[in-house]
Amino acid sequence: MRKKSAGYTVACVFISIYIFITLAILCETYLIPSIERLCYTLKMTYDVAGATFMAAATSAPELFVCLVATLIAKGDIGIGTIIGSSVFNVLAIAALCGVFSGVYTKLDWWPITRDCFWYLLTICMLFGVLYDSRVELHEAIILFLMYFVYLIELIFDRKIQSICRKVDVEKDTLTENPMTREEDPLKSFKEIVCGFPKKEEKAYHKVWFAIKYPAILLLAVTTPSARSIYVFCLLMAIAWISVLSYLVTWSLTIVGHNIGVPDSIMGLTVLAFGTSVPEGVSSFIVVRKGYGSMAMCNAIGSNTFDIFICMGLPWLIAVAIEKKDIHVNSDGLAINVGVLILTGAIAYFSLLGTKFVLGKIVGWICLVSYVAFLIVAITLELIKLKPVCDIESGYYSYYTK
């Protein structure tokens, strides 16, 4: 067992905070602008972009964890990560956007209802796959291919909408070229690197810029501006999201070990939080820009991506390589499925009750629900007396291979 150190704890807390700052810069300067350019090029609606490209980009950490857990560690930690991050995505992100964004956003009921339906379907399919505690080849294939069925449905979303209601083609579609717009223009490499504070700005602005500048410079050197090759910018942003999410999870795990937090609670909180930071940051930014549907579809669509791709793809690869079924621990499966359905229902019906206005009412309902979930889950785990988290134990050895 590694010796505990107050110095390590303090250092890791500050490292984690700085990584959060870096993630915010990454999402605001590179991820969101590159997705905006992609939306404009493909004439996509904000909600479809949030449910596809943004959801896939911000779910890269979950895919990484599940690949490692399934193919290398041969464990079930990936399942726990998906469940924990799914609850965070639905409730915590809605709370973050509703309570702390400072804006009230009117959402379109259609995309929220559509993505909640698909989220419910993914949960039911996951229950069907894990019910017998094993994953067979055909189950992994079906789970993986269902995501492409979901994508096809999104491609024809407008035509499907036209059957049910009158569709405004330009509604929620980016009609202004991000390259030429005057408000909130895309920044070039020079503007990013040389965007120093003006002399008349207050001292705390200059101090804040000095703190951020190392992260700004590092990202600018390694990631092209969204004004250049925006597809490459998007790919590099995804790569950075994976690296930073891994680092923040690692740092917070060290903190958990030093303060004596059990493994199971770390999985429910730190690992779920660490891998879901990109979704939270990107959703908060786009809500501030006025793209409320994009934010919520990102949160819900990330869960669909997590189950279909982040779980389906590693299982498919593992079964194909090993030529045998994967056995998983399905203890508490019914409870986990019930929790996922309940969290989705809370978010959807709170929006329905406010006529799909994402504001403080929805935010506080989701925040209280998320806190209640954590209290109940942590209490149950404490009763089980799980061992204390130790990243240098054999259980975590796959992280250092």
Tags for this model:
401 residues; mainly alpha; disordered C terminus
In spatial order, strands of the major sheet run 1-4
What is the CA-atom radius of gyration, in angstroms? 21 Å
State the helicity in percent bands.
over 70%
Tell me the span between the first and last alpha carbons.
Answer: 18 Å
Number of helices: 14
Taking the sheet with the most strands, its summary is: 2 strands, antiparallel
How would you sum up this structure in a few lines?
The chain is an all-alpha fold. Helices cover 74% and strands 2% of the residues. It is globular.
Can you give a write-up of this model?
- There is one protein chain.
- Helix 2 crosses helix 12 (292-322), helix 4 (77-100) packs antiparallel against helix 12 and helix 5 (109-130) runs parallel beside helix 12 (292-322).
- The protein is mostly helical.
- The strands form 2 sheets. The chain has a two-stranded antiparallel sheet. A two-stranded antiparallel sheet has the order 2-3.
- The chain is built from 14 helices and 4 strands.
- Mean pLDDT is 80; it is low at 385-393 and 395-401.
